[in-house]
Recover the amino acids of this structure.
């Protein structure tokens, strides 16, 4: 199975064990830092934040899924192997939710159990999703559809739409989607356009099947 998947993307690169440990530790530290920062901003009264952060609605932006999915996708596709992608993303989310809920419990003074369970569940499945996402940067048709699937998920997490209306959840979510398109771009402009068109079409299908905003 792995040999088949390796044909979808270029041969996995090799780096030293020491470098692997350093890279993964840095990713885990990033998760810890962002989790604590997110909770800190969540506990600060909005009118105490700088005007720009208020205008961008950073607190709510960090409380939704789009930015975290985007970061996880970046970690996945830039990891040196599919296994490394799974490990890196798992530790990123583990660090993020650990620092977020430790801050929530011991500094903010409350623990939102139901919300935490959602993130724990997502963290548990994240290695499998990261493993699959790594192959999205290959050159096969399967990779193209994997890329389109990622675009579809980001689209539905960045925009709300229906019959007669279309809007972004926020400016930052719209920018996140655009950054996702750039990160997932294919070898040619035509292939990139095809990926985005398929992704948006798939997003509309998913929106009908799973009409929930995260």
């Amino acid at each position: 199975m792995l040999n088949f998947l390796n044909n979808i993307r270029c041969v996995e690169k090799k780096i030293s064990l020491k470098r692997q440990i350093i890279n993964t530790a840095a990713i885990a530290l990033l998760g810890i830092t962002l989790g604590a920062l997110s909770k800190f901003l969540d506990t600060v009264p909005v009118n105490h934040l700088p005007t720009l952060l208020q205008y961008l609605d950073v607190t709510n932006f960090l409380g939704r899924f789009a930015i975290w999915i985007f970061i996880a996708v970046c970690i996945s596709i830039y990891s040196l192997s599919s296994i490394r992608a799974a490990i890196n993303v798992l530790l990123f989310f583990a660090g993020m939710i650990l620092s977020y809920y430790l801050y929530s419990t011991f500094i903010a003074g409350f623990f939102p159990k139901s919300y935490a369970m959602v993130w724990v569940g997502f963290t548990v499945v994240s290695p499998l999703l990261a493993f699959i996402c790594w192959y999205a940067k290959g050159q096969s048709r399967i990779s193209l559809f994997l890329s389109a699937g990622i675009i579809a998920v980001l689209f539905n997490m960045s925009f709300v739409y229906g019959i007669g209306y279309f809007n972004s959840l926020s400016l930052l979510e719209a920018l996140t989607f655009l950054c996702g398109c750039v990160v997932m771009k294919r070898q040619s402009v035509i292939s990139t356009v095809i990926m985005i068109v398929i992704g948006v079409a798939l997003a509309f299908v998913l929106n009908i099947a799973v009409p929930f905003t995260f």
Residues 1-8 have pLDDT under 50 and may be disordered.
